[in-house]
Amino acid sequence: MTKAEILAAVNATTRRGLTDIDTYLINVLVEISRRTLSLKEELEGTTTADQNYITAPDDLAGSAIDGLIIDGYEYDPAPLRDVLNGRNRSYCLYNSKIYVYPTPDGESYTLRYAKLHPSSADTILFPEIYREVIEHGVKAKVYEQYEIMDKLADQISLYEAKLAKLIGDNATPPVCRPHRGV
Question: Is a pLDDT exceeding 80 seen at residue 182?
């Protein structure tokens, strides 16, 4: 899927002759990556000797760390107080730092995490299954810009429904019936 294909779909629906949707598209791509946590990254590096933290990557989506391995040992997520008090082999993300215990000594690490989509519309990292969600999101941004509120509401509804389906939440609450007794 390309930016040009998204632009063509947006222009066909909105009946606009837009030539640049980069800002809209980037905003939608970053939001989808933040909400779905579906873009994964693996970062390798070396810890700083006698430093009890690793600086979190700038493109980390919220606090979505999928795993941390230091010197061949898998670290478990834990509350910050447990990490700082030296309980088990653990880590905690706090203020853009990943605190670890025990304190590494210049050892290699691998960090697996969900990342935000880069702030570029030239390459869309999402697979084809995300096309409709992306298109509805960009259409909503266009309608918002031109203050066409009824069409904006329609596109937001479609965007949210398609996104919920991709996330795995069909947004249908369970049916609850009161118990009448026997």
Answer: no
